[in-house]
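Quick one: structure for this chain?
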Amino acid sequence: MAKIHIILQGKGGVGKSFIAATLAQYFFQEGKIPLCIDTDPVNSTFYGFKALNVQRLEILEDNEINSRNFDTLIEMIATATDHVIVDNGASSFVPLSHYIISNQVAGLLKEMGHELIVHTVITGGQGLVDTVSGFAQLITQFPQETKFVVWLNPYWGPIEHDGKSFEQMKAYKDNKERVSAIVEIPALKQETYGLDLRNMLQERLTFDETLANPNLSIMNRQRLKIVKDQFYHQIKTTEML
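Got it. Here's what it folds into:
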């Protein structure tokens, strides 16, 4: 049985591609070979990680998204035997979500012996309300056989509203039985850890590629190793992954 991980969130720039790339790297380290697919018709950030062998699915026709092209995605998934990671952009969020729901894809995947896991992101700062709303829409519209993993990304500020953490918010409390796991992305000091991570991601490099770079300073490598270990520990403790 394959586990199909799809990263969905309607707001752009919240870290979806980073989550996809980190999941893929973790699975590779565990000796697995995930099938990685990028369906973002605009940025294709995930596809840029050459070491992860990401396949790009073209869904645009005459500069418009043709949802029938998602049929190819199901064909790609059908024969998978391990993990599949699908990164989806903000511009294709509505079409892909509608496709999965209207075509009863979760049930179809279950019949194939697969399991659908939707990963979504909650951010702090100005994106908090939008991402919490996106989470609530996803979890209420997707069928019960869909599992959800929530990633809390504090890059833009603390994830709290009116003094309440995400776990204390109504959107979560009303739907917490549908959430299989919460992954907390560490808050990184921007002038050190954060800068090292940003530089790595801008180059579309994996942790292992960057740590193997002899031109990187000792402390750059040390901080990235710490960040890598923090992320992998978070993923590992999420048993359903």
